[in-house]
Design goal:
Length: about 200
């Protein structure tokens, strides 16, 4: 990575989906009857709405965006291949933010999960030098995205599948790139600790 990057990448997991009871995988007979509707749950829509104020007013986000204003908001698009590629949740998570008047000039870009490498290459190209890019994605791929963007693997935790409440901030700055986890503290039940590495 060259010095031309100077880019902040914020990564969030899509907001909540309908959970299994108590967060546990149910008996196979019950699981067979479960139908994933690929959209957010009521709590997920609540978090999506809360992201509007979070990204516009929360002190830690405002500081990032003063240093490097919005360059783009990116969401995982619906993909007909692969179970979690069919999800509309990553896009739905940032839809309310993108409808905010202050975001009207910010590009909103959709990438299918199969195009993740293209997305990473676009960010690493220097296209967003001096800017901030927000990515809303499925949790299974987020750690790998962070690594592809240049964060050392030893610094990147596996994403806890029960967590929807953490923001990852990647400061891409050549050899001085850094990685930070910020607990969102948006909704009741959100934890105030990062995920362990």
């Amino acid at each position: 990575m060259g010095s031309k990057l100077q880019t902040t990448v914020i990564i969030i997991r899509h907001a909540e989906k309908l959970p299994w009871d108590r967060g546990l995988t149910p008996h196979k007979d019950v699981k067979a009857a479960y139908i994933d509707n690929h959209v957010l749950s009521a709590k997920g829509y609540e978090r999506a709405q809360a992201f509007v104020a979070y990204f516009q007013c929360r002190q830690e986000m405002a500081a990032l965006l003063r240093a490097r204003p919005w360059g783009a908001v990116i969401a995982q698009d619906v993909d007909s291949e692969g179970g979690w590629g069919k999800s509309e949740r990553p896009r739905e998570t940032v839809d309310p933010l993108m409808r905010a008047p202050t975001m009207k000039d910010v590009p909103f870009i959709l990438y299918k999960k199969s195009d993740a490498d293209h997305m990473v290459n676009s960010i690493l190209s220097g296209k967003y030098c001096g800017k901030t890019v927000l990515i809303s994605w499925c949790h299974q791929m987020i750690p790998e995205l962070a690594k592809q963007l240049g964060i050392p693997p030893s610094s990147v935790p596996e994403w806890d599948k029960k967590r929807f409440d953490v923001t990852w901030v990647l400061n891409l700055d050549g050899r001085n790139s850094s990685f930070t986890q910020i607990p969102q503290r948006l909704l009741y039940g959100d934890l105030d600790v990062p995920m362990p590495v």
